[in-house]
Structure formats: C-alpha cells, structure tokens
Amino acid sequence: MAEVYLHKDEIIVVRTEDYYEEQASQEEIYLEETEEDLRMILEFDDPSPAPDENLREQREHAAEELITGDSDDPPLSDEAIDEILGTT
Cα separation of 41 and 39, whole Å? Predict the structure, then answer.
C-alpha cells in the first residue's frame, strides 16, 4: 500500500496507486451508505399526499386535459368528464 523510506533520520512515505484505489473504494462505499440512509430518512419523513390534495391534483389534470384538447374534437359529455375526474 505504501512504501516507507528512511533518509537521514526522516521517514518518507510514498503512497502507491493501490493505496489511492483502496481509499477511493472506501470513500465510494461510505457515500453509497450515506445516500441510502438519507433516502430512507426522507422517505420516512415525507408523508403521503392527503386525499384532498390527491383529488385536487386529479381535477387540475382533468381541467388541463379539457383545456389542451384538440379544437376539432367534439365537446365531452358529462359522463366523459365524470370519468376523467374519477367521480363515477
């Protein structure tokens, strides 16, 4: 891993490529473990959306679909709108 030389009562340490590869490997493992831990914390702390919010998002999506529909398409029936909104 490292070569040690003695020169005039001084210790000189020369790092080899294997040493740096081992350091990088350990750092990568540490970062992956930390990322997993943080992801678990965020998923645990992030509550699922409230039912009202989910319904609001569905309505916004349905309204967007109605607005961006092709102008050549015939108007949607009440049944089709209810189906899009999921209120049937």
Answer: 5
Residues 6+ apart with CB under 8 A from 59: 85
| Domain total of the chain | 2
**Number of other residues whose CB lies within 10 A of the CB of residue 20:** 11
Residues 45-84 pLDDT 10s: 766 666 677 788 888 877 777 666 666 667 777 787 777 7
Domain that holds residue 73: 51-85
Q: Report the C-alpha gap between 4 and 16 in whole angstroms.
A: 11
pLDDT at site 42: 82
Is residue 15 within 8 Å of residue 2, measured between CB atoms? yes
Residue 49 three-state SS = coil
Strand partners, 13: 4
Residues 18 and 40 in one domain: yes
pTM of the complete model beyond 0.90 = no
